[in-house]
Each structure stands twice: as structure tokens, then as C-alpha cells.
Design a protein that fits this description.
By secondary structure, the chain is of the alpha/beta class. The protein is about 35% helix and about 20% strand. Strands 1-2-3-4-5-6-7-8 form an eight-stranded parallel β-barrel, surrounded by six helices. The model has no long low-confidence stretch (mean pLDDT about 95). The structure holds SN-glycerol-1-phosphate. SN-glycerol-1-phosphate binds next to strand 8 and helix 9.
């Protein structure tokens, strides 16, 4: 049985920083490994997520193992479905899309994940996942068939997050969607994180260090970045 310490170490003990997301549909393992060599040397990077909104590629197990073999940082699954799980990950976000009203993403996928979780004993991080409008229809909005919360409704975001905390989620993920035109506004991050006792992470549309630092100053524990690393806009 693994030591289930990822949550404590990454969200309670660790300084704030960046989590880099690798989407196997968009970055081949060989490219990811090259990037990881550089990223590992950067103190701002605290963990890696692996996940995809669709997962058209095969060989997820091999991919996660490849990432894991090249870093000492935690490697965490960020699954959009029960078919996106790997025993090689250190932990997985066990997410419910609580901004949406699609029952399959509130409890259906999660139910199908149970046999894998029980069989492997993998650490689960119960996560309330909240989609906030990022200025365009992103894959997560389209695939989830849910509406994001309007970006000027900070109270609505904060109340969804509080409901998640009251349900017992241990983490809130504010998501503008990968490749969003605009990241979640700082005032939304601030209103949400100051209303909660559990950590908040934020992702989608972050393209520069200044915005990442401002998101952390606004109360985000970590910022998740995928596209900017993939396209070498950051850390080149
Ligand atoms: C997606 O929040 C992540 O779930 C990352 O988004 O690709 O826009 O950085 P980006």
C-alpha cells in the first residue's frame, strides 16, 4: 500500500507554485520527458498532472510511468473519465463537476472509478471542480455538456465552492478550461479562497509568470498550466 501523503505534502505543507499538466493527446511522451528534465530544475514546479478532456491516444499507463520515472515530484491523474486512470500515478483527483448539472459528471463517472480505486489503493483527492467562463467554448465545456459560471459572478463561484467544502471535498479546482482566452479573474479566486478553509487551485488560460504570481497572491494554492508549457511560452 502506498503512503497516502500527496494531499498533505502538496496542499498543506508545500509552498505555493505551479502544477504542470501534460495532456497525452497533445504532448507525446518523448516531448514530455524532454520538458520534464528542464521543469524539474525549477523550484516553482510542485507536481505534474496527467489528463485530457477526450483521450484519443492509447498507452496511458506507459505515459504516466514515463513521467513518473523522470521526476521525484508527485504525478497525479486528472481524469475526465473512468477510462483515464493509471496505477503508476501517486494519486488521482477524484472530481465532481459541481458547477454543472450533469448527473453523470456529478456521480456517474466517479462510481465507475470505484473498482480501480479499491483494487489499486491509489490515493484519491476529493475535488470539487468548478468551471468558470474563460471567454470561449473550451473542450471541457463542450465535452461535459455543462455551462460554466459567468466570470463576473464571483459570489456564485464562491458559493458553489463552499457547497463543495460542506460536502467534504478537500480541494476546489477553479477551471477556465484548457486554452481559455482569459484565466479565472483574480477577484473570483480571492472571493472563493477567502470563503473556504480548504485549498483552491486554479487553471486554464495562464500564459505568464506575473498572472500566475497574482493568482497565488489572490489565494490560489497552486496554478495549473498546460498550454503555455506545451507551446513553450513558459520555461523555455
Ligand atoms: C486545464 O487548467 C488546465 O485543465 C490547464 O489549462 O492548458 O490553458 O494552461 P491551460
Amino acid at each position: 500500500m502506498q503512503q497516502k501523503r500527496v494531499y498533505e505534502n502538496l496542499f498543506k505543507r508545500c509552498d505555493s507554485g505551479l502544477i504542470v499538466l501534460f495532456d497525452p493527446d497533445r504532448t507525446k511522451l518523448s516531448e514530455a520527458v524532454k520538458k520534464i528534465e528542464k521543469l524539474n530544475r525549477n523550484d516553482m514546479i510542485k507536481a505534474y498532472f496527467v489528463g485530457s478532456s477526450f483521450q484519443t491516444s492509447f498507452g496511458l499507463d506507459e505515459y504516466v510511468k514515463g513521467v513518473k520515472d523522470n521526476t521525484d515530484l508527485p504525478v497525479i491523474m486528472f481524469p475526465s473519465s473512468h477510462s483515464q486512470l493509471s496505477k503508476h500515478a501517486d494519486a488521482m483527483l477524484y472530481m465532481s463537476l459541481i458547477s454543472g448539472r450533469n448527473p453523470y459528471l456529478l456521480i456517474g463517472e466517479q462510481l465507475r472509478m470505484v473498482p480501480f480505486i479499491v483494487e489499486t489503493g491509489i490515493e484519491t483527492i476529493p475535488t470539487g471542480y468548478i468551471l468558470v467562463d474563460g471567454g470561449k467554448i473550451t473542450s471541457v465545456e463542450f465535452m461535459s455538456n455543462t455551462k460554466p459560471i459567468p466570470r463576473d459572478k464571483k459570489d456564485l463561484v464562491a458559493y458553489h465552492a463552499k457547497a463543495g467544502e460542506l460536502f467534504g471535498f478537500k480541494l476546489i479546482y477553479l477551471e477556465a478550461g484548457s486554452g481559455a482566452l482569459y484565466h479565472v479573474p483574480f477577484e473570483v479566486i480571492k472571493a472563493t479562497s477567502s470563503f473556504l478553509d480548504i485549498p483552491v487551485i486554479v487553471g486554464g488560460g495562464f500564459k505568464n509568470i506575473k498572472d500566475i504570481e497574482n493568482a497565488i497572491k489572490s489565494g490560489a494554492k497552486h496554478v495549473v498550466v498546460g498550454t503555455a508549457v506545451e507551446k513553450e511560452m513558459l520555461f523555455v
